[in-house]
Specification:
By secondary structure, this protein is an all-alpha fold. It contains 4 helices and no strands. It has a single domain, classed as Cytochrome Bc1 Complex, Chain D, domain 2, CATH 1.10.760.10. α2 packs across α4 and α3 crosses α4. The longest helix has 23 residues.
């Protein structure tokens, strides 16, 4: 019975690891496409006549965090998933956060490999601003 349980546990852990790696893979390697941002020209027009808000939209930043697959590798707390937990990242400053998203290999956190996709460098500036603003709210 224990061998059967071990096989099931190993299978479940392997499946989770595959999905986590897929969420953090480059678009060419990711069959789910969850980490590929939609180019600005392909976003449907909402038809809203409301003026754009001044300043970043933290709600949109949170949506980008989950929608782009960031939450597949990073927690919003201090726990390690695939990448480091992001609680307290605001202490590093906006430039560090922005560069970590757009050029993830430029500076690595000790103990972590460069597994983050580089496709986030193509994010529209407003979405990047919103994502940075959201990350600054994590304590």
């Amino acid at each position: 019975m224990f061998k059967r349980l071990n096989v099931v546990v190993i299978f479940v852990l392997a499946a989770f690891a595959m999905f986590a790696v897929a969420a953090c893979a480059d678009a060419e390697d990711n069959p789910f496409g969850t980490t590929t941002p939609v180019p600005a020209g392909e976003v449907a027009d909402s038809g809203s006549s409301e003026p754009a808000s001044s300043g970043p939209d933290i709600g949109n930043g949170e949506s980008k965090f989950t929608g782009l697959g960031c939450s597949g590798c990073h927690t919003t707390g201090t726990d390690k998933l695939i990448g480091p937990g992001l609680a307290g990242i605001s202490s590093k400053g906006d430039d560090y956060i922005r560069e970590s998203i757009t050029d993830p290999g430029s500076e690595l956190v000790d103990g972590y490999s460069n597994l983050m996709p580089t496709s986030f460098g193509d994010l529209p500036a407003s979405d990047l601003d919103d994502l940075v603003a959201y990350l600054n709210t994590l304590n």
